[in-house]
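The following block was generated as part of the benchmark described in Methods. Ligand: beta-D-galactopyranose.
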Amino acid sequence: MDWPNGVDGLCYGGDYNPEQWPESVWDNDVALMREAGVNLVTIGVFSWAALEPREGEYDFGWLDRIMDRLHDGGIAVDLATPTASPPPWFTLAHPDALGERPDGTRQIHGSRDTYDVHAPAYREASLRIAGALAERYAAHPALAMWHVHNEYGTTSHSVHAERAFRAWLQGKYETLDALNRAWWGAFWSQRYSDWDQIMAPRATQYLTNPAQELDFKRFTSDALLDHYRAQRNLLHRAGPDIPITTNFVFGPWVPVDQWRWAGEVDLVAFDSYPGAADRTAEQHSALHADLARSWAGGDPWLLMEQSAGTVHTPDGSIPKGPGRMARHSMIHISRGSKGAMFFQWRSGRGGAEQWHSALVPHAGEHTRTFREVVDLGQALPALAETADEPVEADTAILWSPESWWATGGHASLPAPFDYFENVAQIHRVLRDRGVVADFASPEGDLSKYATVIAPSTYVLSSAASENLRWFTAGGGRLVASYLTGAVDEHCQVWLGGFLGGLTDLFGVRVLEHLPQPDGEVRALWNFGNAERFCELLEMRGAQCVTQYAGGELTEDRPAVTVNPFGKGEAWYVSCKLVDEAWDRLFEALELNGPGSAGVDVVDRGRWRYIINHTDTETRIGRTIVPAGGWAVDRRPE
Ligand code: GAL
């Protein structure tokens, strides 16, 4: 892990877009930043047209001036390459380098992220502008870190994508026979007899091939990574001591496998935007933070963006009342972020995000928002020491990007199923019990965990299956829920009882999937209810923890089981439990922590962070935390 050069302690600041404002505003910006304790700003993220107004013609004057001014003000710069938004001259000159949707619609400028990462002209232009920036600024004293691109995640289904996809598939499968087997090509006459027949998944008459879709996501993740790496290598050559990152974003549309990417960045950086109109924004922020820390392998990471106030999106907005911005920041810092960064410094007057909140709102600095920004900025330096210490967790939740990809959109599934919701539920119930859990890759190292929970991990590769076997045999406690290991890495069903082939480990076989209509619940004896989905189990040596109390086919049949295996044990939950039922199970498993619903208590080494999201004062140990407040104290011995 590397840290932005010259930034001591926690990072505080955000995206700064000076090119949107007359230079007369800049001095005021720097003065306000100093007042607020801002020590790092990200500039240049969408500045390509300002930096290269015509192909090969650069205008660095404004960037020189603002870099110098920031440096004079003691503010470090996280300088972005602007490749997430090519200028209009580029898109008109290279129409083949624009992204294409599955239905063949070619996008055009007027928004952002309009490029085809597979197109040679875009690759070339990206490297040219990144190279020009590297040459000019690698030695600038304000430069603390490089920020490559912005939120990689754009998919294209163009001819360039197709060509690259075929090459990727050839590398992976070597022969068409192997590909046809992996994609179950005998179905619906999808057997390929020439590599050139293979398409990036296009708009089709009916359902598409799940194995092809999953490979296309993996391919896109690799192709985006390749684009990142090319820029990174170039920036690194120009200034080997400057750390390099890109900001990860999280959503079902993002074909980026952060487990694979995290090793390629010097510092994991993450943008956290809890869902629009989301009343559980705190829960989602905590989940994002735990994911980012886990991608970083437990090292500190950086919250690169969050919103200071209302997030304005097409489908709703989240207001942040008094103290909420600070509490969200503390959620991230307590869970491993070495700082709190925002989108954006100053709210814009125009453009698509003109109603997005900022550290300096439209109404200016004499506002509640800016006062809270200053208060937080003044409090952070005292926490620098606490944030150098690790967050230790002995429980991990499996996070499988492939399960998310394979179950999204129009996926072929046994019943409508929301993978993320299942993962979020486990995280939520554990958090409400005060447990701070890590996330882990199904194929990653699980040895440091006592308990691993696999919430409906739909795709379980052979390697992941072996990993879980090894973990449990070695003394781990595995808890898996319905649909875990339904399919393998090629989206092919695991025969003989599903469960990723681990029927001996769980001591059960899954015989049938039983989707339930919305609103219908199935009771479990002394345990609470299940909803939406359950499975019919056959016992193969496991003990029954509880049974279904009714339901066609399920009455008195096992619902939750446990099986000793090697030195460990494997629990299986054959249905979608409601929160209260998971809570009961975690109670039985003695998964407890010092926090509770509404009060985060997170230990980092010798320090304890307490964040009180409730409207009443709370006392944890000897620390009293006011309603809506937070505190950091020595951890009790
Ligand atoms: C992020 C993006 C920013 C801004 C922000 C708005 O995803 O990186 O540029 O658009 O969302 O919430």
